[in-house]
Amino acid sequence: MSTTSRITAAAVVAAVGIAALAGCGSSGGGSADSKTVTLVSHDSFRVSKSVLAAFEKESGYKVTMLKGGDAGKAVNQAILSKGNPQGDVFFGIDNTLLSRGLDEGLFSPYQAKGLDKVPAGLQLDKGEHRVTPLDYGDICVNYDRGYFDRHKIAPPKTFDDLIKPRYKGLLVTENSATSSPGLAFQLGTIAKYGEKGWPDYWKKLKANGVEVVDGWDQAYYDRFSGSAAGKGKGDKPLVVSYASSPPAEVLGKKPAPKEAPTGVAAGTCFRQIEFGGLLKGAKNEKGGKALLDFLLSKEFQEDVPLQMFVNPARKDAEVPELFTKYGTTIDKPTTLAPEKITKNREQWIKQWSSLVLK
User: Are 76 and 180 in contact (CB under 8 A)?
Assistant: First the structure.
């Protein structure tokens, strides 16, 4: 998910101690010594201090983190520094961008411990193990329940609904060229309307006043009216986010509400799978392998839902009640074959940019 730019616990309460986890690596520096292992990720990566501390104590490695913006930007930076990577492990390349990373030769093969606990459907590089599936989520339009209640309008449920006059000017989405959720939403419309039909759909969506911003943080925190972290300052009651975003809006609230203040338009969802991989040329390859094992461990996987609000890749990882009670399970998300995304992604993004941004 990721986001997966995606909603995290920081959407409701300030993230505590994250700065203490982040190292001050230099560009192209990698891990300076064998006792330090560096994780390169997007800005939405989170892990509990206690879970990370347990890994550091058991393994003897000190983990530093380098965060590179939205997932799309982080992948671009990794490609620019390939061969002399900024760190040892990359977290956050998803199925919308995976083929680009693989084609660029970013990763060294490694079969992480616990991979047998991951469903085959998530293992998109099963033959070579250049990347390891670590979580998954569904990119969907979220809506502000309060807005639709006040205006006595039924919230949208499907892609078709979004182009209806009643929802004119209400939706904000992310740029397909710079944001993985934005690209996933575009791919969802391609899966729904086909290669010939999706451009016409976006023409209608543009005519209906869709707003486009660079990344998920700006869309959700600044423009969406239903974000508690944004304190409702946005004026868009519809935003492209995650099916698992609503639990974050409930986190920490007492008494717990009967339902989350935000909902999910279940007919607008696209399945996103997020991966990690050992960066080719890593300074600390041994530490990188240990870190990948940790990211797929049951301890980390059970920490994932309430830290990054996506589903753990391991099928034996327990998911907390808050996540299951207030989240939305998407039984039939739209999908596209990775090879189809590989073949058409750049062309689709250029076509989308020409249609929507000009």
Answer: no
